[in-house]
Each structure stands twice: as C-alpha cells, then as structure tokens.
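Ops channel
N.P.: pipeline sanity check, posting one input/output pair.
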C-alpha cells in the first residue's frame, strides 16, 4: 500500500486527534448517559468487580427480548456501542497515520463493516430458506400426524371391538359357570335331603341322648362348680377369721405390752415421787430448823445489842457526870489586854 507524505499524514492525524479529543470530552460531559448506562450494566459491572466467571464467547443476541425491541436500554446500548466503535475507528486510524502514514486501519474497518453487512444479508437469506424448509417440514409433520391419528383411531376402534367381544365372552362364561354351580348345588341338596329323610329316626334318637348326656354333664359340672365355690368361700372366710384372730391377738399383745410399759413407767414415777417427797420433807425440816436457829441467833444478837446499848449509855452518862475522857473540860488561856495607843500631834 502506498504511504502518504509525512505532512499529509500529520495533518490528517491532527484533525483526527482533535476529533477524538472532542468525542472524549463529549462522552465525559454527558453525565446523565453515563449514569443511565451504569445502572443498566450494574449486573455486569458487579460481576467484573467480584471476579465472577464470564463465558469466553458471548452472543450479541443474548439478553435481548425480541418482543420488546423498542426498549430504552437496547437503544442506549446501541448508542454506546456506536460511539465506542467510532472512537475505536478514529483512534486506530490516528495511530496508523501517526506510525505508518497510511489508511490501512480505516480500510480494514470499512471492509469489516462490509463483511458484517454481507454476513447479515447471507444470514437473512439463510433464515428465509430455513423458514421455507421449516414450513414444508411442519406441513409434512401435520400430514404425518393426521395419518397417525387416523391409524390410531382405526386401531382404537378394533381394540374396542375386541374388548367388547372379550367382555361378552367373559359374561357368557360366568353365566354358564353360575348355571353349572347352581345345578350341582341343587343336586347335592336333593341327595342330602333324601339321606336325611332316611336317617331322621336314628339321628333324632342319637341327638336326644346326646343332648341328655350333655345336659347331665352340664348339671354335674355346675353342681361341682357350686360346691367348689362354697368350699372356696368357706376357706376364704376361715382364712379371713384366722387372719383377724392373728391381728387381734397381735393387737392385744401390743396393747398389753404398752400397758406393761405404762405400768413400769408409773411405778418408776411413783418411786421417783416418793424419793422427791422424802427430799422435800428433809428440806422442810432443815428449813424449819434453820429458821429456828436463825430466830434464836437474831434474839441473841438483839439482846446483845440492847445490853451493849445500855452499857454504853451508862458509861457515857458516867463520863459526863464525872467529866472524864472526851467530856473533860479544857482550860482556856487568859489573853492580856492591849494598851491604848496615843494619838500623834499635828
């Protein structure tokens, strides 16, 4: 491919650089579109952030609802992809002009667009052919289904007919079997009645004596049972009276033992009270003797005090009369008279 001159490539590169810068500024300034795009791709961004495994090859039609192609998110994705594609084309062309001084990158992008368009046209034609083929196959399928339905209907009719025949045969067989069974039962009853008529007399006698023997045996059994019941009741009464006798004797022995213990306790208490009474008598006698002795001592002390008081009074009177001892009169010294002082002359 022929390379451009350096000046031409530089001019074209400068123009593309300005265009790329303006596109980037325009993209950075469109905050509303960026926020809307982020909200739309929040699941993909979250998966990328947390390193969620992504498929290696993704179909561009994945996640597109064909019944709602006019949705705003699809339009937004289309606008964003077109903007990115234009930016990539301009950037690759700018790099090619700057480094190789050629339009090879732009030509490749144009050729890629043409190839994509041709591929889509071929896919549309192939889809048309596939639709025609699918329509033919569906028609053949409907014909085959109708044929199968008709064959199935005929087969069901044959099966229903066979079922009806089988049911009729089963009913006939059952009717014949019932007839044979009833006929055999009637013949058996007839023969049994004849035999019963012949053996009725001996059979009645045998049955009569059998019933008599059974009745006597039953009466004997009932009488024996009644006697056993009376014997058991008598034995139970004897046992109960013996138990009562044992309990009463045991209760009386316990009562006698209690009375004996009470008598022993009363006897011990009587001896103890007698001893206490003796001690009380001795204490009373001792107390009376003590009171008598104390009264005698008190009278003796009282007489002694009276005698001592009389003696002291007599002695004090004697000392007073004779002025002896502490009652002796004391002689007081005579004080000399003081001379009168003469007055001084003035």
């Amino acid at each position: 491919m022929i390379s451009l001159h350096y000046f031409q490539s530089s001019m074209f590169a400068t123009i593309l650089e300005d265009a790329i810068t303006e596109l980037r500024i325009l993209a950075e300034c469109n905050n509303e579109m960026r926020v809307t795009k982020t909200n739309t791709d929040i699941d993909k961004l979250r998966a990328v952030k947390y390193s969620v495994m992504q498929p290696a090859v993704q179909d561009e039609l994945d996640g597109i609802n064909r019944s709602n192609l006019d949705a705003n998110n699809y339009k937004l994705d289309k606008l964003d992809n077109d903007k990115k594609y234009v930016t990539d084309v301009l950037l690759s062309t700018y790099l090619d002009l700057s480094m190789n001084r050629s339009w090879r990158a732009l030509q490749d992008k144009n050729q890629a667009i043409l190839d994509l368009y041709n591929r889509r046209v071929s896919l549309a034609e192939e889809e048309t052919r596939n639709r025609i083929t699918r329509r033919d196959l569906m028609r053949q399928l409907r014909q085959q289904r109708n044929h199968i339905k008709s064959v199935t209907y005929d087969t069901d009719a044959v099966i229903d007919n066979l079922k009806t025949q089988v049911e009729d045969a089963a009913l006939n067989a059952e009717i014949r079997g019932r007839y044979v069974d009833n006929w055999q039962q009637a013949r058996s009853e007839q023969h049994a009645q004849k035999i019963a008529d012949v053996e009725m007399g001996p059979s009645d006698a045998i049955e009569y004596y059998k019933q008599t023997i059974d009745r006597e045996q039953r009466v004997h059994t009932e009488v024996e049972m009644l006697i056993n019941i009376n014997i058991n009741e008598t034995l139970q009464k004897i046992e109960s009276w013996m138990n009562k006798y044992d309990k009463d004797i045991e209760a009386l022995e316990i009562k006698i033992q209690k009375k004996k213990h009470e008598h022993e306790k009363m006897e011990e208490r009587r001896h103890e009270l007698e001893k206490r009474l003796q001690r009380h008598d001795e204490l009373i006698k001792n107390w009376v003797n003590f009171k008598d002795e104390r009264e005698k001592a008190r009278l003796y002390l009282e007489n002694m005090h009276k005698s001592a008081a009389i003696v002291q009074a007599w002695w004090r009177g004697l000392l007073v009369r004779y002025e002896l001892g502490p009652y002796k009169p004391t002689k007081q010294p005579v004080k000399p008279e003081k001379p009168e002082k003469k007055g001084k002359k003035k």
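N.P.: looks fine end to end. The radius of gyration is 77 Å.
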